[in-house]
Amino acid sequence: MTPNETAEYDVVVLGAGPAGEDTTLALLRAGLSVALVEPELIGGDCFNWACVPSKALLRPGHAHRAAGRLPGVLESPSAPLDAAAVLAHRDEVVLHHDDSATVREFVQAGATFIRGYGRLDGERRVVVDTPGGAVQITADQAVILATGAVADLPAIPGLSQSRPWTNREGTSANKAPRRLAVLGSGPAGLELAQAWRSLGSEQVVVLSRRETLLPDFEPYVGELVLEGLLESGVEVRFGVQAVEVTRDNAGEVSVQLDDDTVVTADELLVATGKRAFTGEIGLETVGLQGGGFLEVDDTMALGGTTWLYAIGDVNGRALLTHQASYHARVAAAAIAARSRGEEPRVTAEADGVAVPQVLFTDPEVAVVGLTRARAEAEGLRTRYVEADLGGVLGAQLHAHRYRGRVSWVIDEDAGTVVGATFVGQDVADMVHAATMAVVGRIPIERLRHVVPSFPTMSEVWLNLVDELT
Amino acid sequence: MTPNETAEYDVVVLGAGPAGEDTTLALLRAGLSVALVEPELIGGDCFNWACVPSKALLRPGHAHRAAGRLPGVLESPSAPLDAAAVLAHRDEVVLHHDDSATVREFVQAGATFIRGYGRLDGERRVVVDTPGGAVQITADQAVILATGAVADLPAIPGLSQSRPWTNREGTSANKAPRRLAVLGSGPAGLELAQAWRSLGSEQVVVLSRRETLLPDFEPYVGELVLEGLLESGVEVRFGVQAVEVTRDNAGEVSVQLDDDTVVTADELLVATGKRAFTGEIGLETVGLQGGGFLEVDDTMALGGTTWLYAIGDVNGRALLTHQASYHARVAAAAIAARSRGEEPRVTAEADGVAVPQVLFTDPEVAVVGLTRARAEAEGLRTRYVEADLGGVLGAQLHAHRYRGRVSWVIDEDAGTVVGATFVGQDVADMVHAATMAVVGRIPIERLRHVVPSFPTMSEVWLNLVDELT
Questions:
Q1: Which of B205, B211, B208 is nearest to B229 (CA)?
Q2: ipTM score here?
Q3: Scanning A168, B79, B332, B400, which has its CA 20 to 30 A from the CA of A412?
Q4: Yes or no, beta carbons of A453 and B461 under 8 Å apart
Q5: Closest-approach residue (CA) in chain A for B442
Q6: Residue B9 CB partners (closer than 8 Å, separation 6+)
Q7: What pLDDT, on a 0 to 100 scale, did the predictor assign at position B360?
């Protein structure tokens, strides 16, 4: 498409992260024409500078420790990873930040891809700044905002001048810093702390404002993850806040803490949260305000309209790639239905009820639905069952002296599972069965007929079954 | 208990394999008194000479290959396993075939454990031959037969005189034979072929009567497993039958095949099937016939009685440990209900409908429910969806160039999943989500709300979701 031309599509999608990608493909399947607009790289943060490279950095360490937990596998279990090989593989996984093949795939699938910075320009209109000039686009059916979220640096004196790492540098760096300090003890901070430690950082310190790790999960989660971090050589400082950050001429970063101690490091990773990227996308041209997360209804439509949608991180419902993909399908289905003059049949009913999340730390954490505390706060009459995953033969065979824990939250009145938590090596894929139980509202009485295969780790479900008999 | 004493229990359980163990614990939980009778070791074949030691032999090789499929993890990916360490660990896992600690656990749980050979001696009566003499026991409520199944040697001239391995030697041997021949290409034969190859056997040949591997599964299963076997150095001969077996004075075994070739090896593992252990357990004293598998109703009761039950392999419903454990709980619930004068509320409705099975080959195979062919043979209007597991980012991050495949069988009229198959590295625990879907009869329309976490392998479920939209 030539600049200055005015083009018309059924749908214009702003942002080609997972949300934008998946909604584009779903819209194309539904027979609609789509323009996909992205100023940076297809795949967005997740594919290029977050979950994907992060997992590529973590997984070799996990596989190495998994092998070391079995007899006779590793010649020297304490031998370090070949970090250069891992980093080269990471680059390969993210396609060396070259998205030309992916762009071709989208074009072949029928999408128009426009590289440029897009913003709303009135109702059903978008303008894209491309290298060749501004491009005007009309969206007959809908505009979908999938502009994501960006690292939100806290207002700490000296921080922004100290060249801190965000998730971008933290996942794309080409060598492990000798000393790494991590500000923030959420999932992303803990994952990258463990990754760089396994890749050769001699000293990794996580600085946590809170007194426990991962307090939003079941209480044992933070305890087990802390054990794993300490074993892998990551230090954690609890209950500390950074009050000033400086980087000296030799490149050393100093973090002054509120307990009057100073942590020095070669790099400082800031992983304290994200903010919606909504400030400069023309929301004011349609009478809306940018800056914060965008509130949507369960069809992902914004501000009471049926033409403007917001999916993925930007709507703030759950800053997780898979929920973005879920929103992407829901929005596409709603737009396709409305384009036929029908009411949307599919809404994002899983949001807030059955959102899974996996932390790729070692041990891994995989959760879905409500914690016990959350269920009780919501007034549910709950029953809570906890089990030792290491007591299951399938786990003992998976790793010698396997350590892990599982719990379920039952809504006694509904008679169904409303939450589950798994902690241990290789539990990431175990949570999907729990998500089935939660979303499928399988009566707990029927769970006795859901037989787990022996010897697998899923056998731990028998602990729940036996509680019910 | 002293021999010649006559003792009385609510329930007598013959056989302390997984079925006997689990039903004993469930009966104790229900407040019934139980005598558990076992001539050999608690845990039965599964724990002592089958699935458990087999998995202990296989898992190190799997973890080794998994580590080798990621960059930078192994110093020398082709280095062999330390077989002595693996075998020593296998011995530790099976408690060196010393069940005294397990016996103590059962006694502490409230069971009476009697080491001896038990058989029926009329209605609600059992006699046990113990080292000290015969013991008479009365079972007020029920006798449960959990006597299992044993390797069934085919009638091939010379075979039984050639000291073949069955699952017992195949899982307990203390060194890898230089050359191993395997008669039978079912799950057990393939697993042990790959295990011993990874533990140092230079030549492993599987002799298959059929022309394809694993023909009872979806067609791609046998193809992918064959690829994995060949890559790990296991040979497979298709469409051959052994017509004579000899072992010479030097210890070499020769298997004469019906295509006029001869396979020579140091050991011959026979894995052609199992037969019920029902020949000498006194069935004739209650007017029943032994020898074959025992047909039971869905409460596991035998021959129209409400006092005689048969659970696990011995009833022939599914020769799988986890189904034995399922039967164990169903029978215990039925006996507990009947002891209170109530009708059993729980029956074995999952049998034949939602039976999972995992093959711990590399690639692993995990299935549940009906194959497409089986569903069609049963007259269901089916839809079949197949997906490339290697196309999923979660899998690509789990292992470089991950190869795997997944399929689902949908009953179009019921609108639910009735079968699923997973093939690939580490899919063993992925099938449990499918078992939830099958047993929970989750409407396929609801599966779009069962969000798989990114990046995990469960993301492959999105292929099914997208087929439905």
A1: B205
A2: 0.96
A3: B332
A4: no
A5: A440
A6: B33, B34, B35, B112, B137, B138, B139, B140
A7: 98
Quick: pLDDT tens for B331-348.
Answer: 999 999 999 999 999 999
For the segment B183-235, what is each residue's pLDDT rounded down to a tens digit?
A: 999 999 999 999 999 999 999 999 999 999 999 999 999 999 999 999 999 99
Of B393, B396, B430, the CB nearest to A429: B430
Give the integer Cα–Cα distance in Å for A171 and A168: 6
Selecting from A46, A428, A451 the residue whose C-beta is nearest the C-beta of B322 gives A451
**A432, B456: Cβ pair inside 8 Å?**
yes
Interface with chain A: mutation pick from B365, B436, B441, B448, highest number of A CBs within 10 Å: B436
Helices (H), B341-454: 372-377, 393-398, 431-439
**Pairing status of strand A267-270 against strand A179-183:** parallel
Best A319, A421, A449, A460 member to test B by mutation, with max B CBs in 10 Å, is A449
Interface test with B, best of A89, A102, A320, A451 (most B CBs within 10 A): A451
Tell me what the mean pLDDT of segment A225-229 comes to.
Answer: 98
Tokens 């899982």 belong to residue: B171
The predicted structure's pLDDT at residue B5 = 57
- In chain B, residues with a C-beta closer than 8 Å to the C-beta of A42 are none
pLDDT digits (tens, 9 = 90+) for A234-247: 999 999 999 999 99
**Pairing of β B133-145 and β B267-270:** unpaired
Average pLDDT over residues A274-293: 95
Residue of chain A with shortest Cα separation from B465: A329
Nearest chain A residue to B458 by CA: give it: A429
For chain A, domains (ranges, CATH) are 6-43+99-150+275-339 (3.50.50.60), 152-272 (3.50.50.60), 363-468 (3.30.390.30)
CB contact under 8 Å between A70 and B60, yes or no, is yes
According to DSSP, residue B165 is labeled: B
User: How distant is the Cα of B465 from the closest Cα of chain A, in angstroms?
Assistant: 10
Residue B468 confidence class, pLDDT cut points 50, 70, 90: confident
How big is the CA angle at A245 (ends A241 and A249), to the nearest 5 degrees?
A: 155
B303: confidence class by pLDDT, cuts 50, 70, 90: confident
Give the residue from chain A lying closest to B356, CA to CA: A453
Q: Name the maximum alpha-carbon separation found in chain B.
A: 70
Average pLDDT value for residue range A56-73: 97
Mean pLDDT of B29-35: 97
Nearest chain B residue to A437 by CA: give it. B436
- Chain A residues touching B196 at Cβ < 8 A: none
Residue B469 scores a pLDDT above 70:
no
Write down the residue that tokens 């690509």 correspond to.
B396
Residue for token pair 């703030």: A316
Which pLDDT belongs to residue B387? 98
